[in-house]
Structure formats: C-alpha cells, structure tokens
Amino acid sequence: MKVGIIGAGRIGKVHAKNISMFVPEMEIKTIADPFMNEQTEAFAKSCGIPNTTKDANDILNDPEIDAVLICSSTDTHSKYIIEAAHAGKNIFCEKPIDYDLEKVHAAINAAKEAGVKLQIGFCRRFDHNHRAVYDMVRDGKVGKVNIIKISSRDPEPPPVSYVKVSGGIFYDMMIHDFDMARFLAGSEVTEVNAVGSVLVDPGIGEAGDVDTALVTLKFANGAIGVIDNSRKAVYGYDQRVEVFGSEGCAEDQNDTPNTAVLSTADGAVHGVAYKVMWDRYTGAFVAEMQAFADAVINDKETPVTGEDGLYPVLMAAAATKSLHEGRPVKISEIEA
Amino acid sequence: MKVGIIGAGRIGKVHAKNISMFVPEMEIKTIADPFMNEQTEAFAKSCGIPNTTKDANDILNDPEIDAVLICSSTDTHSKYIIEAAHAGKNIFCEKPIDYDLEKVHAAINAAKEAGVKLQIGFCRRFDHNHRAVYDMVRDGKVGKVNIIKISSRDPEPPPVSYVKVSGGIFYDMMIHDFDMARFLAGSEVTEVNAVGSVLVDPGIGEAGDVDTALVTLKFANGAIGVIDNSRKAVYGYDQRVEVFGSEGCAEDQNDTPNTAVLSTADGAVHGVAYKVMWDRYTGAFVAEMQAFADAVINDKETPVTGEDGLYPVLMAAAATKSLHEGRPVKISEIEA
Amino acid sequence: MKVGIIGAGRIGKVHAKNISMFVPEMEIKTIADPFMNEQTEAFAKSCGIPNTTKDANDILNDPEIDAVLICSSTDTHSKYIIEAAHAGKNIFCEKPIDYDLEKVHAAINAAKEAGVKLQIGFCRRFDHNHRAVYDMVRDGKVGKVNIIKISSRDPEPPPVSYVKVSGGIFYDMMIHDFDMARFLAGSEVTEVNAVGSVLVDPGIGEAGDVDTALVTLKFANGAIGVIDNSRKAVYGYDQRVEVFGSEGCAEDQNDTPNTAVLSTADGAVHGVAYKVMWDRYTGAFVAEMQAFADAVINDKETPVTGEDGLYPVLMAAAATKSLHEGRPVKISEIEA
Amino acid sequence: MKVGIIGAGRIGKVHAKNISMFVPEMEIKTIADPFMNEQTEAFAKSCGIPNTTKDANDILNDPEIDAVLICSSTDTHSKYIIEAAHAGKNIFCEKPIDYDLEKVHAAINAAKEAGVKLQIGFCRRFDHNHRAVYDMVRDGKVGKVNIIKISSRDPEPPPVSYVKVSGGIFYDMMIHDFDMARFLAGSEVTEVNAVGSVLVDPGIGEAGDVDTALVTLKFANGAIGVIDNSRKAVYGYDQRVEVFGSEGCAEDQNDTPNTAVLSTADGAVHGVAYKVMWDRYTGAFVAEMQAFADAVINDKETPVTGEDGLYPVLMAAAATKSLHEGRPVKISEIEA
User: Fold this and answer.
1) d(Cα B188, Cα B225) in Å, to the nearest integer?
2) Final residue before a domain boundary, out of C116, C142, C176
3) DSSP per-residue string spanning D259-281
4) Residue A336 has pLDDT above 80, yes or no
5) Which of the listed residues A64, A85, A116 is the one where a domain comes to its end?
C-alpha cells in the first residue's frame, strides 16, 4: 500500500515517522509541501521517503499511490478530499474536515461517490486509556449508558493569534471531546448548552473566545453528558473520561510517565502529568495509522468515518451558538 | 450546654447518639417526638437522656435548655426555628429549612432578630475528604477557582412515594451538592442550567421527576461548575468533588471501607464503596455537631448559617425551573 | 457482662473509653491502678465507671465481675492472668503475656485449667485493612499462600530508655507483625533469620538494639515471608501487608486520613499518613473489645488465644538470637 | 557508528528492531547466527541490515564495525567479549557474562586492557518506573537509604528443561533484582541469606531448584534489603521496587497497559498487569541501546559496566550457597 502525504508540518511529520517505524504495510512514496525545503527533504530521507515535492498534484496524479494523508492547513482539507476522491485514492484527513458545513458535506459525498475510504484524524479514539473505557462500555460492562463526563485540559493556552483563526475553543479543542462523547455514548447528541469564562488569558477574551468552558450534552438515547475544557492546567495534560451506567462506571485516570511515588513528611507525591501532547498521545497516533492501513488493505469501514468528522463540527457550531445566545441549542437547529 | 432534640426519627437518633458518645460539651436533657413510644424511650435511656416527651413545647419552654436540634419533618422546620428563636434558644436545624422561600426568610430573620445561633445540617461540609479539598482551596493551593465538578450518586433510588413529596431530585438530593458548590467556590451561583432524564426508575418519571441530572453553574466570580446526580449507582455511594484552579486541581476520591486490593488473573480489585449513607458520613455527622457546640459555647458564627440554608433552596428552585423550561435560569429570577 | 480494668495507663484508658462508647454489652464496674489519682478518677467518672481503686484485688475478689482487662505493666501480666483465672474470670490481656516463656506457659495453662476465656491484645488483627486482606486469604481468593510480606514502620523512635527495658525491636514492635504473619499465613513459623542495622538513632545501638530490621520467615506449610521494621518513617505510620498466592495477591495500601489529592506543577500529592498510633488503629481497638465481649457472652473461642500470645514471643526470641548469632534460628530451638 | 549483532534469537532481533527504529546513531551492518535461515534473512532485510552470515568472525574481523552486540547463548558470551575486545570493538553483551567467575573476570579484563567499552544488558535499569525511583534516590529525596525491597514475579514458570541449564532462579531470574538492588542502594552487598520453596511446579523442585524465593541483603553502607521472586503470578508481571530512607520512601507501582477502572457492584477493577515481558519492558530495551550508543559516541563510561555484570553473579552464587547450606553467606566467601 503506497501512500502520499500532503503537508509536511508537525502532524504530517509525525505520521510520516510513525508509518516508517510502526506501519510496515504502508510505504510512503511522496511527501508534498508548498514550503518544501532542505530540512524537510532531509527528514523525508531519514524516513525512507524517496520523493519530495512542492506540488500536491504530484501525489494526486500518481497512479501508483493508493492512499493520501491530508495533513495540510484546515482550509485546504475539503478541496484535497474531493480531488483525492476523484483520483480514486483512499483518504486519511486530519480533523476537522472544515468549519463550513457545506464543504464538509461536499467532501464526504465526494468520497462516498468515488467509493474510497475516508478516515478522519480523531486520534484520541485510539488512546490506550480511552480505548479501554470504550471497550468496557461496548462490552456492556457498565450496562445502559446514563452519564458521560469528559475532562480535557491543556498545559498552556495557544497564542491568541491562533485562537483568532481556529474558530475558538469549541472548534479547536473541545472538538476532540465532542467526538469522544459520541464515541463513548454510541448515540448522537441532540442538544448542547455551553457556559464559558475567560479565566486564563484576557487576550483570548479580547479575541472573542473563552478559555474555560463547560458543555452539557443530551443524547438521543436519553443519556446526558458534560465536557469541561480549560486552556491551562499547570500540572500538564489532564485527559479523563467517565461513563456511568446502569451496571457500573468506567473511567480512566490521567496518564503519567511513570508510576513512581515519593512519600515524605509532606505526603505521597505521584508523578507529574505529561506536558507535551505528542508524548501523551504517542501511541494513539500510531494506532490510528495502523487502523487506516487495516481498513484500506482489508476493505473494512474506517473506524472514524466522514460522518464522524461531521458531527463534532455540528456540535462545535451549536456550542458556539449556545454560548453566544445563552440558551441550549439543538443540533437540528444547526443542521437545518 | 443543655440541648433538646425535636424529632426522634432516624436523623434525630443519629445526633442523639453522636452527642452522647462524641460531644461531651453537650448534654441532652429532653427528646421530643409526637410518636414517642417505648422503643424510643429505651433508646433515649441508652443515650443517657433523662426526659422524653410527645410535646416539643416541653423543650421550647424549658429555661434550662440552651439549644434545640430540629430533626422533625421538613414542613415543621421553619415553625420550630421561629418558636425556638423566640424562646431565645440556639438552633441546629436539619436541611432544608423549607421549600417555601417566604418561610425560609421568616425563619432566618427570626433567628437573627433573636440573636441566636442558627446552623443548618449540611453535614457534607464536615466530611473528611470534602473538607480536605476545601482546606486546600481555602489555603490557596489551587489558586483562583476556575471549574468546580461534583459527582453525587446514591446506591438506590428512594421510593416513588418519597419523590412525590420531597420536591424532587434537586430539592432532596442535589441540594447537598448545591451547598457544596458554594462552599468550595467561595462565591455565589448566579445562573443554573439543568438537564435530566429518567433512566433508573420509570415510576420516578411518572411522578414528574428525573432520576439522572446534570446542572451547570455560573458563579459570580466567573468560575463555572457542574453537578451530576444519579439515583442509582450499583457500586454504592459515589461522592467526589473537584476544584480546578489557576495553580492546580484539588479533588477527592470516592471513599471505601478499606484499602485492600486483590490482584487476580482478572485485574486488581479495590474494595466496594459504601452502600449505607450513615456509614459513609459517620464522621461528618459527629463533626457538624461538634462544630455547633463550638459555635454556641465560644460564641462564634455557625459554620453553616441560615443564608447557607437559603441559597441551595434558591438553586433547587432555579434548577427545577430550568429543567421544565429547557433554558438557563438566573438565581435572580427566583429571588425576585 | 461486668468487667474490671487493671491498669489505668494509656491503653487502659483507651479500652475504658471504647467500652463506654461502643460496647454496650459490657459494663465497667471498677478500674484499678496503683497510682490512682484525681485525674484518673475524673476520667473514670466521664466513662460512667462507678468504682476506682488502687488495689487490683478489689476487682479480682469481686464476685460480680465477669471479666478482667489486664492493662498493667508487662511484668505483671502473667501474675494477674493466673490470679484472674483462679478467680474464675474471663481475661483480656494486653500483649505480650511475658517475655519469660515459663511464665507465658504458666499463664496460658492457668486460664485453660480454670476454663476461662483468654484473649491477647493483638489489635491489628482487627484493623479494617489487614482484616480485609485476611478475609480475602481465608476465602481462598489468593489460593495457596506462597509469600507473605509485612511492612511496619513507626513515625518516631521510642526513647532509648524504653528500648532498654522493652526487650528490643523484635519484642516491642515486630511482635505485632509476627502475630500478623501467623494470622495471615494460617500456618506456624518454623524458622526465622534476622538482619538489622542501627540507622535511625545511635543511642538505640548503644543500648544493644537495632532500629531497622528485616526478618525472613519459613512457615510449616512451605510458604516464606519477610517483615521489615523501621523505628522512623518521616511520612508517618506505614503499615502494609501482602499475601501472594497461587491464585492472586491480596495487599492493603497504607492508610491516610482522607482521599484528597492535590495536583500542581510539582505532581499529584496524596495526603500524609497517620502520625499518631491511636488515630491509625482507632477502629481496631474498638473491634477487639467487641470481639472479646462476643466471645465471652456467646461462649466462643476468643479470636486471639493464649497460644496466639505465645508464638510471637517465640518468634521474637528466635529473631533476637538470629540477629546476635548471624544465622537462621529454628523456633524449635527456642521452644526446647 | 556501525554495529554487528552476534546471535539472531529473540533478544538479538529485539535489539536489531529497536536500533533500526529508535537509534538513528547506529547502523547495523551485519547480523550473524550459526542457524541463519531465510526467515532471519527476511527479518534482517526488514530492519535494513545489509549483511547476514553464519560466522561471527565476519563481524569480528570487519574493520568497519565499531561495536558488537553479543546476543548469543550465555556459554559463548565471555569468548566473544574477549575476541571482540582483541579486535578493538566496543561491546554490548547480554547478561550474564558467564556463571564461571574466572571467565567473567577474564572477559572484563580483556575489555579493560583493550580500552573498549563494555555494557551489560541489565535492561531494567532503564525501565521508566524503576528509573524514576532511582532518580529520586540519587537526588537525595529519600535521604540516606535504610531499606530496599524488590518484588519480581513472572506470569508463568519457564520449562523445567530451561531451569536445568539456567543455573536456577537466582541466576536466571533474581539476577536482575540483584543488579537492581545494587543500582538503587549505591552500595555493594556484603552478605545474603536465601530461603526458598517449591510452591509452583514440582518439576522445578525435581530439577533441584526452587520456584519461590526470598533473599535478604546486607549492604556495605549498613542498609538492608530483601528481594522476593515467584515463577508464577497469575495476574501477570509484578515488578516493584521500594527504597526507604531517612527522609522518605520512593516506590513504584506495578505497570498496567492502561489506567481504566471499572466500578461495579463487585468493587473497582483496575486493569490487569502485563503478561508478556517484551510488552512490559519495551521502553527499557530501547533506552539501554540508546545509552550504549551515547557511551560509545560520546566516549562516556557505559551505564552498566563489566563489574556491574560481575556482582550479580557473585550474589547469585552466594544466594545459591545460602539456600543449600541454610545459612547467611558473605559475598567475600564467593570472591575468594
């Protein structure tokens, strides 16, 4: 299975490296980036990638390439999905597909019509902890799902410049948790209510966003849920999920780099949490790429479909509207 | 310090027993209950209480008695507070004062005008775990409070007959968490939004209530919070609080009767949670009574004032309105 | 069931208080202490004990008294056991019975011949954590016992003056763990090997003792075990047991006063351990007295028999000999 | 830095794979195995190793090769160390160097005389948990080391045929813990006392070995320690270390593949432990190879020297002697 990677930024490089190390079924033939330079060329060489180019068309037009990884900037995702679909290539696309719902639908439809695989990069579904909770829920260990709680806090806020273009906390951060909520509940969200505050960085408030947010969720199956996000947790990444049901409760604890404990006169200190996202989710990035290879090679449905890419965007739109209007917003209001 | 207890039901007996065992500063002179019988008289004797009566006035009119514990049914709380205040007695009253806000205000005012102490029985403020979290927050260990999360789940739903008269989940169950939220935040709640479902017992739904609920909170200081309640957690009482702030996160873990762990081929099993509320909060009931004795004897403000009894009722009223109207409700709407 | 307490020192007072609060089946008629004074008389009154005396014979000769609690100094234990047995009274005696094996045997025999109950004060058998581990082992959850590990560390070393008369670390401290080892293994120890060092307090070394010790155990059933003791753990009482068997491993974690956790940039800090022995084993002291009442009233064997008092002394003697001679010592060498 | 690997069994392949994936500073030129076959050749190709051979001399005689990894059977280790040393190559050798002390000394001396690096494969020094404990100890967090405790239990006993040739539990299993004890204590062991039983597999007893063992350790600096081993823990790998000192206690908890917890009516179940050694110590194998590359390239002392390979063999010999003779054995008895 030959692949091309469009976009050689941070995430493109992570996937390239992971494929070269951990996904022997995949062979990267070409990596494209409009800002291709010597450094990136050296990186490509170190991963055993024979071709580098500034032109994504070199990948899209290459008949030898079976699948495309779209790791370029968000505004180009839907365009490349459509072009890759037309070229008959299977597609892995970083999240989100787009913030414009029409473009999202167009991209999903293009992939469907072309009969190619489409997987969206919601890597947290592949995290060892969250996956173990999911497995417990799927195996009926908690019975019927009643309450879902997700905490997701980052070590440091992003630059305000990023917040201005990212669409805000619901689009660039909580979108992962929206996906996780659907994933764990096995049911669609029908309504959200958002509350938020600017408690971390006044600059984020000036940019029109909040940095601390709580969103309650109603699911079609009657379950209810809540997600909390903060742009800054001084103790590092705090990523926990909890699924409470009729027969029990499955939850994970925050991940730490080791299990060492130091007991002194001041108490028992457990290790600090991860401070770097790439360390926290190392295994998840590998696993999602292995899953994509498996879906393409064995002709299975991808584990994160185009629709899975769509719904979190709907939820982000509804949460944003809810925050601004100070009232619960139904997903159907957004879809309409 | 001589006290009289009005009401010899379950909670009245718990306080009587605890005072006789753990609060040597207090001496119970009389216990009153309209259904006084031989069994209760024997109980009183075992606690060293010299007098039993069917008439609460025997307590209210006794000049030797310094303080009254009001442990009767909720509908009599405000009446007895007012009468005890007029009699110049310090007052410990079980929560809630009343569900009728006028009555609550009248009771609080009566105590104020009489210059007597009034403490409301929000015992969870005295729980060893929640108190330790509170102490961390109060001592500035988490910095400025940004997010408050409270989980409170009971082992079994109450009978539907109880739900019909209790005022519903927000009044009889979440009211403890409303108090805890204020206690931990050190700030008043200004707005709530409630979502709820009937997922445990359809009979509760038929009685017009929900058995699973999530309420988001906005605090005056900008912090946001969420409380989740379920009427039934198969693993027993699940009582956890979390306060996330600018400098860290304080949380407690659910309490278990012991720390034993069994590792077998199926995993490492930690002990079950408490299944009986009186076991779970044993120490808290003792501590609140010691605090009341301390407030009276040393002329300090009680640690749970009349206003502390009022605000959770306002929050319960707002949450109920929010659930019914499907929109966030400001506390000021209720107060008006 | 009427009881008399011989000895009104710290432990005598703890038992008196606990009985008055938690063991309604027992009524303390008399407490005796050669140094009886006003303070102790006031204490007795607060516990509802009608009689105080300087003469233990007032208890031993009182035909109304059913049981005697021997809480006097160790050198008087065997004498009082024998006298109480002759007087036909059931006996609870603090550990150890004596360090002189002949006296231990004489005391046990006296109780047997008189047909009275004898319970030794190894309170840790009643600790909530250790008991839960014991229950798991007894219920076969770990299968056949292969390895037993016990850690027992104190917050502060005792005064050197105490070490000089206590018999040393194996007699005054590890004796609890020797009992726990037999209790958990359900098998007798046949051989011990001791290693020790003076690492905490040079004065303890000058007094001829060690303050840090490891003793390996061989059990009759083939299991092996190890106990470690330190006179000083800066983080407080560290009391853990572990039973590893063919089907799993049961262990307890050290006890803390609460479950609160503070996560900051420095890591997640769990609460400090107990610093005061009476706080750590509060419940155990109550439970052992309830068990004694149950044994006497319902004519059951006591849960800690005279033999249970004998064996740990044999083990302490063997460990002391092993440490001095630098070789493993069989229990049969001591018994002979 | 060009390397050759002698021995393409399981551990040779693990190192080859890890180098190709995670140690870019190293380039494997040749892999040698007397049983070289098509499968191994394919494996070599997949790792980008250009040459395969049946003759280790192709590596030893290759002037381009800077370092040799000796992953062949134990009986050939010392021979290859000596030959590689004579050939001027830096050496990474799997543990143990040999069981014959003369051969061990000869190998160490050969490396010393040749001025080449020698690192022994005690991979557990590089484990994320044990390393974090080590760091705490090294940084003085526990003060002066008083007690060291190490638990090491395997999921399944090895075949009896292996036990017959491995030298027994002290040589093939506890040798890792002997190394860990020295590593953590920062002091040499002067005396050991071993107790052991056959509790897992009677066949191991028939082969003259034990399957359950406890060894107490005396260190030159006065600290004392204990190691327990069992050939079979039904719950999987149980690998824990604890260092107790004058200022605190550093310990790690057993590793689990994830942090998920399931609370049901039966208690809270944490995940099972690892069942496969390669999963448990994945990171450690990588880290030891990175450390070897670092030592060679930057001309540092290797983190596990030849002497570090020698001492655990001395301890295993002493423990074996102690078990057979039923007495403590000084390391100096073995060295002599």
Assistant:
1) 12
2) C116
3) -EEEEETTEEEEPPPP-SHHHHT
4) no
5) A116
Contact status, residue D261 vs residue D267, Cβ threshold 8 Å: no
Confidence at C336, pLDDT banded by 50, 70, 90: low
Q: Which of D10, D66, D80 is nearest to D43 (CA)?
A: D10
Strands (E), D206-266: 212-219, 224-230, 238-245, 248-252, 260-264
What is the Cα–Cα distance from B94 to B13, expressed in whole angstroms?
Answer: 13
Cβ neighbours of D195 in C, within 8 Å? 191, 193, 216, 218, 224, 328
How many angstroms separate the CA atoms of B257 and B280, rounded? 9
CA-based angle D195:D198:D201, to the nearest 5? 150
Q: How far apart, in whole angstroms, are the C-alpha atoms of residue D242 and residue D220?
A: 19
A51 three-class SS: strand
Cβ(A205)–Cβ(A164) below 8 Å: no
Put simply, whether A238 touches C (Cβ < 8 Å) is: yes
Tokens of C278: 């009476």
B240's tokens: 């956890």
Residue pairs between chains A and C whose CB atoms are closer than 8 Å: 48
My answer on whether C179 and C108 are in the same domain is no
When scoring C254, C263, C274 by the number of chain A Cβ atoms within 10 A, the one with the most, hence best to mutate, is: C263
The verdict on a CB contact (< 8 Å) between D249 and C238 is yes
Asked if D195's CB is within 8 angstroms of C193's CB, the reply is yes
Sign of CA dihedral D92, D98, D103, D108: positive
E strand intervals along chain A: 2-6, 27-32, 51-53, 67-70, 90-93, 118-120, 145-153, 189-197, 212-219, 224-230, 238-245, 248-252, 260-264, 267-270, 329-330
ipTM: 0.93
Which of C126, C128, C135 is closest to C179 using CA atoms?
C126
| Residues in contact with A52: Cβ distance below 8 Å, sequence separation at least 6, in sequence order | A8, A30, A31, A32, A33, A36, A40, A41, A44
pLDDT tier at D59 (50, 70, 90 boundaries)?
A: very high
Task: Indicate whether D73 and D164 sit together in one domain.
Answer: no
Averaged pLDDT in 10-residue chunks for chain B of 336 residues: 96 95 94 96 94 98 98 96 98 94 96 98 96 97 98 97 94 96 97 98 97 98 97 96 97 94 92 86 94 96 96 96 97 88
User: What is the structure's pLDDT at C122?
Assistant: 96
What's the total number of domains in chain C? 2
- Cβ neighbors of C318 (< 8 A, separation 6 or more) are C191, C192, C329, C330, C331, C333, C334
* Closest to B148 measured CA to CA, from A155, A251, C259, A230: A230
- Please tell me whether residue A26 adopts helix, strand or coil conformation: coil
Query: Which uninterrupted H or E stretch holds C218?
Result: strand C212-219
Q: How confident is the model at residue D336 (pLDDT cuts 50, 70, 90)?
A: low
Same domain, A253 and A147: yes
Q: Give the separation between CA D26 and CA D15, rounded to whole angstroms.
A: 11
Q: Cβ distance B89 to B116 under 8 Å? A: yes
User: SS3 for C304?
Assistant: coil
Which of A234, A238, A268 is facing C269, going by the closest CB pair? A268
The pLDDT of C49-63, averaged and rounded, is: 98
Q: Which residues are D53's β-sheet partners?
A: D32
In terms of domains, do B42 and B97 share one? yes
Note whether B258 contacts C142, CB cutoff 8 Å: no
Which residue range forms the structural domain that includes residue B251?
125-276+311-335
For residue C157, pLDDT over 70 is answered with yes
At D278 the pLDDT is 86
CA distances in angstroms from A264 to B129, C270, D225, D248, listed in the order given: 20, 11, 20, 4
* Residues of chain D above pLDDT 90, percent: 94
Tokens (6 digits) for C108: 């046990």
> pLDDT tens, A323-334?
999 999 999 999
The Cα–Cα gap between B288 and B285 comes to 5
